[in-house]
Amino acid sequence: MAAPRPPRVVPGEASESDSEPELLVETAGEAPGAGLKVPGEASETEEEEEEEEQRPKTPPVPAEEPAAVWGGGPSLLQQRLREGTGRLRGAVGSALRHSYGSAARSLGGLGGALSRAQVTAAAAAHCLRLARRDLRAVADTIDIVTACHLLPDIRGQL
């Protein structure tokens, strides 16, 4: 006949009252639960609080992966989480590529429009310089004609 197996504690919700039976995981060579402190667990008596204050503080032990505790490959939950994380990363990456791509195209279009506007402004400035030069030449010609006393005085009758 096979020897009875020691009971296993399954991670989950703790019992709410002392009347419910508690299952302990027994380890070879150690008393069950001796000196074990669960982070976040409330002490049940004032004596325990005093003992906790007197004990030297030890760093918390990192929790083992559930797969290591149960012995075997990754759990279904872990697989689903990895798949969901992969899909989320892909969706975020796609959204970022799309938004950065459209922003780059918009900036490229704006850059082209800006360069066309600069060329147009330069052409307009050149045309204005030519018109100003022509107007100065006309003004100089008018000044010469009005300053010349050799021409007869022509007055039209209205």
What does this structure look like?
The protein has 158 residues and is mostly helical. Helices cover 54% and strands 0% of the residues.
The chain-level mean pLDDT equals 75
Radius of gyration, in Å, reads 46 Å
Major sheet details: none
Given the structure, what is the number of helices? Answer: 3
Number of strands: 0
Distance between the termini: 142 Å
Strand content: under 5%
What descriptive keywords fit this protein?
158 residues; mainly alpha; rod-shaped
Mind sketching the topology for me?
Layout: H1 46-54, H2 66-70, H3 76-147
Nutshell version of this structure?
With 158 residues, this protein is mostly helical. The chain has three helices and no strands. Residues 23-27 have low confidence and may be disordered.
